[in-house]
């Protein structure tokens, strides 16, 4: 018997992906560096479908039907290269290697180019949804050649999450496009989580609500336009009580957030591409600040404002509006980065299709993504989601509330970097004139960097050290 597809790397993600394939009736070859994992998988879940366990790479490759489809689910980085080096010599032209790990898209581009020379399709694939998603249906973002998608697409679409019958999987674009989009997905996820965290913090410290009460607020929000997986789990976490102490769970968790790197990559890449993603950057920095225990301890006694909580009956509604508006900005920034990456690398990514495959399976799954899809359907080449009719109306409706929330945070000394940067981005985009004109003047003054004028073409320089006449440069 031959396997339709094989998975090597059987930690939580690989194991669940293999089970998902088997449950959908696809015979799957399974392999892991440490054979015990392979054995455990077959022993525990062998009844779920057809598994072909292999102890050696040779045995694994021999059990695959041709062209071979081989999925790598190992720790991203050097382990991925090690596994490629181990398996590629055993493959033939036309075979496909799918890397489902969280690889950096630049590594994927390098690997794809190297394997293409040997006639092997390398398909860097973003997979979101954690271990539950891998088992029950993740959101899948495959890159690589269009030809490889013909052979892989039906299988991947079969095991992906479905929303209204549409699979949360589509061919993103060539080489590193899939991992790039997965990276930005994670950056948006950081931003979304940070905005939710700030909402909680303000409801707690500005409105004086207890965690259980805030959980109720989030539950209500989850029945409206903010309905999403992240809002849903936020309510669950806030409603949870620590068994050992009887305190709200959120009060016994150390307040130092961790990160694995995709958020940081999103910001680093945005800097390289020249795309402003302040919402994502502030979310990464907020985690970073939280983790600097010494810095925080040294600063704890610095003075703050005199005012405490500001009770305001309508405050929760204002926070809902601020959250929705800031969320629109966060997604607009993320999609801007996707479009910039697509242009830089010639990927031709369909932004509306990305919103479509994020509607289910992944961490940022939400009703909201239907709105983004609709926005790109209405205007596929729009430079920003902010000007879409629906979003512009929501931003208009949020104006007073959004500004009140940011002002309240500043007044009572609760940090709200996500809300504040979103509003600043919004105001920057809609400004008639930005102080960048002054910046240009300064640059010309100290470095003769020249400037352009509003009324004439060309580059100019003022003789600042002399008689201050203007010269054409
Ligand atoms: P891990 O990231 O913890 O990796 C463990 C696996 O890598 C094991 O199978 C291990 O084999 C194998 N491995 C290592 Br480490 N070094 C190896 C080497 N040199 N040669 C061969 N195999 C090697 O597993 P995971 O949490 O299942 O994640 C797998 C991938 O999926 C990662 O890239 C991750 O970033 C990505 N991802 C994870 C999630 C999630 O929620 N966990 C979500 C989305 C994507 P061994 O058993 O012999 O040690």
Automatic annotation (TrEMBL):
Its EC number is 1.1.1.44. Belongs to the 6-phosphogluconate dehydrogenase family. Catalyzes the oxidative decarboxylation of 6-phosphogluconate to ribulose 5-phosphate and CO(2), with concomitant reduction of NADP to NADPH. GO terms for molecular function: phosphogluconate dehydrogenase (decarboxylating) activity. This is 6-phosphogluconate dehydrogenase, decarboxylating. Residues 178-465 form the 6-phosphogluconate dehydrogenase C-terminal domain. InterPro entries: 6-PGluconate_DH-like_C_sf, 6PGD_dom2, 6PGDH_C, 6PGDH_Gnd/GntZ, 6PGDH_NADP-bd, 6PGdom_BS, NAD(P)-bd_dom_sf, Pgluconate_DH. Pathway: Carbohydrate degradation; pentose phosphate pathway; D-ribulose 5-phosphate from D-glucose 6-phosphate (oxidative stage): step 3/3. It catalyses: 6-phospho-D-gluconate + NADP(+) = D-ribulose 5-phosphate + CO2 + NADPH. Homodimer. SUPFAM superfamilies: 6-phosphogluconate dehydrogenase C-terminal domain-like (SSF48179), NAD(P)-binding Rossmann-fold domains (SSF51735). Pfam families: 6PGD, NAD_binding_2. Keywords: Gluconate utilization, NADP, Oxidoreductase, Pentose shunt.
